[in-house]
Amino acid sequence: MPNGINDESMYNAFITFLLTEKRYSKNTFLAYKKDVEQLLQFLKEKKVNLENSNKTHLKNFLKKLKESGVSAKTLSRKISCLKAFFNFLSERFKISNKAGALIFPKLEQTLPIYLTESEIEELLKTAAKDNSDKGVRNRVMLSLLYASGMRVSELVELKIDQIHFDTGFISLVGKGNKERVIPLPEGVLKFLNFYLEKIYENLKPKAEKNKHVFGKNYLFFSYYNNDIKPISRQSFWIILKNILSKTKINKKVSPHTLRHSLATHLLKSGANIRSLQLLLGHENISTVQIYTHLEKSHVRKIYDDKHPRA
Length: 310
Prior knowledge:
Elements (H helix, E strand, L loop, with lengths): L6 H16 L3 H20 L9 H13 L4 H22 L23 H11 L5 H16 L3 H5 L6 E2 L4 E5 L5 E5 L2 H18 L17 E4 L2 E4 L2 H12 L10 H14 L4 H8 L9 H17 L4
Antiparallel strand pairs: 1-2, 2-3, 4-5
């Protein structure tokens, strides 16, 4: 290994690699960054550096995390990080890859929570009771999230020019800055157009009204400290919880639930897995396979409810 290369410089090189070459999403980047920092702290306590560490050190690190109560899912992500980190060190600094043989924990496959079509209808009708400018904006966000199946991170970062009213499509930038274009229902497009023509201007601060260039033209924005920013995921989460509290829906619902709901409803209506993969923006089709289990449970229920000999 070249002189002057130490744990800190290798860590910095990996972080730069994640940002400039892998182009992970913000959440994945921050998670990997924290994972590597935890490992370095552990090795420091053991008075071992990256070059001299071995597979036993990594196993003991993971064992310590497991004993602290880390879930199997989180542990699995940390192992993915270790594998990526040591693969990078092997290629860039010729350090032996000690993480190659690490085994992922067995994950219990749980079916995602989703809302029925009638529950989605109830959610949107409840949101429609608030006719204020922000109330309309909130309903647009809910409608768009469900209609498109996009991630909440994609929703809050949306800009006006990503909506193509002439073609009826919307351009989305997902994980790894990968773009996809998906269709929107005509009703949602009309609602978006109404929002932009009648509501959007009202939400601007007085100092920004009637300006042709408004910030970065975020579709859903916040304005504080004289700066334009996209509305935060946390803010949308609060909006969703407030609307849910006024419904009779008794499920543990998150913004991601609407994405699961659309996927489930489309599958039940005959959509195939490949189409679902493209719509949701999953890199691997295996990620979408869980919805086939949802569909099987749906078929099982119909069979048990309707079959004369069940």
